[in-house]
Sequence to fold (203 residues):
Amino acid sequence: MTVKISVLVSGRGTNLQSVIDAIENGEIENAEIACVISDKKEAYALERAEKHGIEGIYIDPKSCACRQEFDDILLGILKEKGSDLVLLAGYLRIISDSLIEEYRNRIINIHPSLLPSFKGLNAQRQAIEYGVKYTGCTVHFVEPDLDAGPIIMQKVIPVLDGDTADTLAKRLLIEENKAYREAVKLFVDGKLEVNGRIVKIKE
Ligand code: GRF
Fold:
């Protein structure tokens, strides 16, 4: 069976690209990207989708009276596309509880810190300002609480003397892109077992 993936984006889309490449080069088998959905018209991620013949859909937040209305439209599209898995890849909107409920343990996000440290925006800056010696990225299932869902995978990198939020973010992005495609492969291969907060990777 082919796993249909829908990807939600707001920006440049390097994590989207990583998953596209892994599907195209056969690293991830039995999966296809059904569509890429953006809340930003100018998101470069939409161009990436187009270059690979993937449908890109823009939903204008201004056309919706509230978050729930936006997410109702989004949910309609996700269902229409037959999505089995939803990836948040630099998607900047908070997702409503009803959407999370509908796709429980089937929505995955990536965050640029070792959760539960440095939740929310500017995680790399938070890490620099806190003075940690190591940081990293976390791929996790999405729960209603922000950046708090069951952890699938983490990758760790050192914070170097002289690092700024920008230099750290750049080095971290390489690990993020790897972690995301590895985690998606585990999901697609049916190797993730979720028990409460604990995600077990089956042999
Ligand atoms: C990444 O740093 C990711 O961890 C965070 O948003 C950024 C998205 O980057 N959630 P990209 O759009 O995938 O390049």
